[in-house]
Amino acid sequence: MKTFLGTILLLSGAAHAHLKVIPESENTQSLSGSTRELTSLTQIASAGLNSGASGIDLWSGSYWPQFMGSVGVRYRDPEFAALMTKEAQYKFFKELLVKKPAYSYSSTDTLSPAEKYDLLVGDNTMALTAYAWGLGEKNGGKEGGKVPTWRGICDGFASAAQMMPRPVRSVTLRSPMNQAITFYPEDIKALGSLSYARSQSNPIFLGKRCLSGALFFTDACDETNPGAFHKAIINRVGRLKKSFIADVSPGSEVWNYPVKSYEVSFFNVFSDEASADFKTVLETFDKKKKFSKRERRSKETAYIVGVEMKVNFVDMRYPHLKDIDDSTTDKVMEMKYVYDLELDRNFNILGGESTSKNLPDFIWSPNDRTYPLSDVEERNLVPSDRLNEKAALASKQGQPLASIIEKLFEASK
Q1: H-run or E-run covering 385
Q2: Does residue 214 have a pLDDT over 60?
Q3: pLDDT tens digits for 32-47?
Q4: Phi/psi at 35 (5° precision)
Q5: Which residues have C-beta within 8 Å of that of residue 287, sequence separation ≥ 6?
Q6: 261 in the same domain as 337
Q7: How many alpha carbons lie under 13 Å from residue 370 in its C-beta half-sphere?
Q8: Would you say residue 8 has pLDDT above 80?
């Protein structure tokens, strides 16, 4: 990604001492835009926001893993599909690709999303296909090395699933050579996901990425502050009916999933008594009581209350072969988070401490005011009438042309 990758690396390398309040890098107001966020549990309860769901038709899709060839894999070809089913390593996919070159196919139907795109824009160099397979080479696949199975474009999938409309039906377009090319919903999702993975800019980013080797030098692996996570999901998902993305895998691997819905319940941190009403189970923050990590608590803390939050994320899956896509093809993953919240005298959220130790390392959202334009389009590097040249130049950076992607999504509604 142009800006997003740099943002992650910059924030993940910044060290600071443990804070007793939500750190500035997790300021959740940015997720609410110009709408002032709710921070009081009383206000949140009155607004009926202890459960909520996104109003977006979030769709499932693949993260197009590099060990399978990313968007270059021919997922509709039975031989490639057999390798996908058993999750063979990169070299086996690459060997099959060499054995079955694109020109050996009598129909474009079983070609990969990248190959179809290259044919559509008239790029004889097949630059996007070369880029997709090159990802595996760069990440360990050269000369039969192992490619990490988690590497892919889950960031692009999680962004496109909430920013681009669900591709419902297949779309047939003609190439400059008058060749009919059918893009199935999964092809369109793949290209939209790659566009967001490589071309989006200025995302809203909260927290820090946990990097290998950084654990002993920074607090980047400490999880998102529970207070920040609670406010983010209440205001962004419950109140605005939007979504945000969470890295649901604590540690150096990154797995990005968009939030679909959530449900909150409360409990007493000493007795475990549960209640839908936080006031019946909260505890006064008293020096005589042995609260967990009391030395880390905000000085303004008046109360502590336990929280169990169940969050449904739209899950990833391998691409299906259907001509039509709808919600029946989606997968949902449920996560349960257990933590406590520090509250001031007006029940405003000050921060919290995690009990389950599985909160996201970071959360983020695509910027509502930007669109993933390729560098070539953004900087007008090639005249618009030289489509194949423009597309080839952008494809070398893994950036499908926004004008083409937009047309595919619109036609597939």
Answers
A1: none
A2: no
A3: 999 999 999 999 999 9
A4: -85, 125
A5: none
A6: yes
A7: 19
A8: no
Q: What is the rounded CA–CA span in Å between residue 241 and residue 299?
A: 33
Take residue 294 and report the two structure tokens written for it.
Answer: 């009391």
Q: Is residue 222 very low, low, confident or very high in pLDDT (cuts 50, 70, 90)?
A: confident
- Res. 13: pLDDT tops 80: no
For residue 111, what are the domain limits? Answer: 66-201+378-411
**Residue 314 domain flag:** yes
The pLDDT value given to residue 219: 53
243 and 148 in a single domain? The answer is no
Residue pair 328/322 in contact by the 8 Å Cβ criterion: no
Q: How far apart are CA 119 and CA 126, in angstroms?
A: 8
Residues facing 310 on adjacent strands: 263, 336
Q: Tell whether 238 and 161 lie within a shared domain.
A: no
> What's at 164, amino acid-wise?
M
Contacts of 190 (CB under 8 A, 6+ apart): 61, 62, 64, 71, 113, 114, 319
Helix (H), strand (E), coil (C) string for 253-293: CCCEEEEEEEEEEEECCCCCCEECCHHHCCEECCCCCCCCC
Question: Helices 90-99 and 127-136: crossing angle, nearest 10°?
Answer: 150
Query: Is there a single domain that holds both residue 272 and residue 357?
Result: yes
The pTM assigned to this predicted structure is 0.91
Co-location of 77 and 196 in the same domain: yes
171 in Cβ contact with 182 (< 8 Å): yes
Q: How many domains does the chain have?
A: 2
pLDDT tens digit sequence for 334-362 = 999 999 999 999 999 999 999 999 999 99
The CB density around residue 293, as the number of other CB atoms within 10 Å, is 11
Domain assignment of residue 217, yes or no? no
Nearest to 344, CA basis, from 22, 112, 72, 33? 22
- If you average pLDDT over every residue of the chain, what do you get? 92
How long, in residues, is the chain? 413
Q: Looking at the structure, do residues 261 and 392 belong to the same domain, yes or no?
A: no
* 247 and 122 inside one domain: no
